[in-house]
Write a structure and sequence with these properties.
single chain, about 170 residues, mainly alpha, two-stranded antiparallel ribbon, 5 helices, 2 strands
Length: about 170
């Protein structure tokens, strides 16, 4: 059981990080051709990438923590179909994690207008305004850390339960 659980969690972590990086690439597709000078990445793009990846990694760490408990519950309740159910639960949790991260990313894009005014994302990358992306990234990391307990509650709603018999 421990070996298969370790393999499932390792595969889930790798898939989660690949999906996170693909999501970052999808969100930065407008600036893909404009973010390099002489083959070097601009500092503003690097700060944006690091803060988004750090925020996503915090969310995925909570996903893996709850998935670990979920796999234990699956092995206790359904030992015959445990592998399939574990992968199904892992894909659900990873999907919820990405949706949670994107939800707060877009909400913070709207809220950042209150703090920094209406700014064009592509122009800020072109002018290498790293302080803008530093403030925006720190706000995203702060919101992510503050909302992780709420996200854990949401994940636990989807986690399989063990039915305990009630004796009176």
């Amino acid at each position: 059981m421990n070996t298969s659980k370790t393999v499932i969690l390792t595969i889930a972590i790798l898939i989660a990080l690949v999906i996170l990086i693909m999501t970052i690439q999808l969100l930065s597709r407008k600036t893909k051709n404009k973010n390099s000078e002489d083959g070097k990445l601009k500092l503003s793009y690097g700060i944006w990438f690091i803060t988004f990846f750090l925020s996503g990694s915090l969310v995925m760490s909570k996903v893996v923590f709850v998935l670990n408990e979920s796999i234990d519950n699956i092995y206790k309740t359904i030992p015959t179909k445990s592998l399939f159910e574990s992968f199904k639960m892992g894909s659900l949790f990873i999907g919820l994690g990405i949706v949670w991260l994107l939800l707060w990313y877009f909400i913070l894009n709207i809220l950042s207008v209150l703090i920094m005014g209406k700014r064009n994302y592509v122009k800020e990358i072109e002018t290498n305004n790293y302080s803008y992306f530093l403030v925006k990234g720190i706000i995203l990391i702060g919101f992510t850390i503050c909302l992780l307990p709420v996200f854990e509650i949401i994940l636990r709603e989807f986690m399989p339960n063990i039915q305990i018999p009630f004796y009176h």
